[in-house]
Design goal:
Length: about 450
């Protein structure tokens, strides 16, 4: 589909997230998930990076989001309950429309972008956030997530000028009768990439340069884009087109068309950078990926209460959003609000919701080696003093026992805590406070 360039709709903000661990591959290192990360936690990290770019989480003013479109590639299928976890953790109101595209098809991102562009362009909604999570395969496809906010704007950070996709319907004609169904057949990839790329590059302004950013099928892209600059980026599977859009708009602001090739089923997005895109869009840091670190194994401890119990129902919102209760009479803040009906300082019973800071430093910690079945061999519990002065305790994630000290900066993030009868349960954990690239370097 080609989108008229006069249309005043585009990407006005973006956020990305890469896990802190990476493994070497033939074409460079790719990030892999920690044991407590999945499509949901990746999506939350990328969404928060978009909503609160320099921040403290819920305290900063965030742009409005009328519809949330989630796309998950690889790994377990994303369900409705998990989509609600993402919405809640991002602090979006209960009435926010949430739609899901799940199951690892790389074309999902194309239909998600189209649906967001269409809905905003015709005025059905005023803004849509598309978040694409890719859990990766640890071999060729890196784990990561990217979020973009599509909204009306005279000068968006990224203008999407065309979207092309080709799926397995075409492939059937190429298949040998005896062949297994594999859309990785090189001639098929070559054909679809060439056709889609040519159609997109046709729309480029010839007075500007064009660049093709590709994570998957670099060979096909190279031959299909002769005379056009080609930049190789890590393959982020279904999140690849969004990473390519963001990197292209930041690093090639004068190139009219940036096309992203994603995977064996071709998905391409043509776009152009708007004025000031480099300032608006944060660097996805894909150039800083260095192999290193050993992810923690996934654990699945028993819960003392079932995940469907009233405790979890009542406290889900305040746990995922990190909200306390501030006493209207004396200002004392208690956490979690639903467990503290009476103020410990003045015995008042009236409270207001109070967002807590997501950042702080280690006040004290303990390494617990005696754990119930399902927890693994050890757990670091951190009591941190948050930047707004309140103290909060939570397990640490991705932190080694010999690498944590009082005073260390930490941040709170949502991670998977366990699987309760197959239902994933999410909770806040303390994470080492460092940028993705610094973490990757430190881990190597
Ligand atoms: Zn009080």
């Amino acid at each position: 589909m080609m989108i008229p360039s006069s249309q005043k709709t585009g990407v006005v903000a973006a956020g990305t997230y890469l896990p802190a661990y990476a493994v070497p591959t033939r074409r460079g290192a790719i990030p892999i998930c920690n044991g407590d990360e999945d499509a949901v936690t990746l999506a939350i990290e990328a969404g928060l990076a978009l909503l609160h770019p320099d921040s403290d989480g819920d305290n900063a003013a965030a742009p409005g989001v009328e519809e949330l479109i989630l796309v998950a590639g690889g790994g377990p299928t994303l369900g409705g309950a998990q989509a609600e976890v993402v919405r809640e953790a991002l602090g979006l109101p209960e009435g926010t429309r949430v739609s899901l595209s799940s199951g690892g098809d790389r074309l999902g991102v194309v239909s998600a972008l189209l649906s967001a562009m269409d809905a905003v362009a015709v005025g059905r909604i005023s803004s849509a956030m598309v978040i694409v999570s890719e859990v990766g395969d640890g071999q060729q496809i890196g784990a990561g997530a990217a979020a973009v906010l599509v909204a009306p704007s005279a000068e968006p950070a990224i203008r999407i000028t065309g979207i092309r996709s080709d799926g397995a319907v075409v492939f059937d004609r190429w298949q040998e009768p005896s062949a297994h169904s594999s859309s990785n057949e090189p001639r098929y990839i070559q054909h679809t990439v060439e056709r889609a790329l040519a159609a997109l590059l046709d729309t480029a302004d010839p007075s500007h340069g064009s660049v093709v950013l590709t994570g998957a099928s670099p060979g096909a892209a190279r031959s299909a884009s002769v005379g056009t600059a080609l930049r190789h980026i890590p393959d982020f599977g279904c999140a690849g087109p969004l990473f390519a859009m963001i990197i292209g708009a930041r690093e090639f602001p004068t190139a009219y068309t940036v096309a992203a090739v994603a995977g064996s089923r071709t998905a391409l997005v043509g776009c152009a950078a708007g004025a000031g895109s480099a300032e608006v869009l944060a660097d996805p840091l894909v150039d800083g990926i260095v192999a290193g670190g050993k992810p923690e194994p996934a654990v699945a401890p028993m819960l003392s209460l079932p995940s469907s119990s009233p405790f979890f129902e009542r406290s889900a919102r305040e746990l995922l959003r990190l909200e306390g209760a501030r006493c209207r009479q004396c200002g004392h803040v208690a956490f979690p609000p639903t467990q503290r009906p009476i103020c410990a300082e003045c015995q008042s019973t009236s409270f207001d919701r109070q967002p807590l800071s997501r950042r702080g430093s280690v006040y004290t910690f303990t390494v617990n080696h005696f754990l119930p079945v399902g927890f693994g061999t050890q757990m670091i519990l951190v009591l941190a003093e948050l930047d707004d002065g309140y103290r909060y305790w939570a397990p640490a994630s991705g932190v080694r026992a010999d690498d944590v000290a009082i005073g260390d900066p930490v941040r709170l993030g949502v991670r998977r805590f366990t699987n309760d009868g197959g239902v994933p349960v999410y909770a806040m954990k303390f994470l080492a406070e460092r940028s993705a690239s610094a973490a990757l370097t430190a881990a190597s």
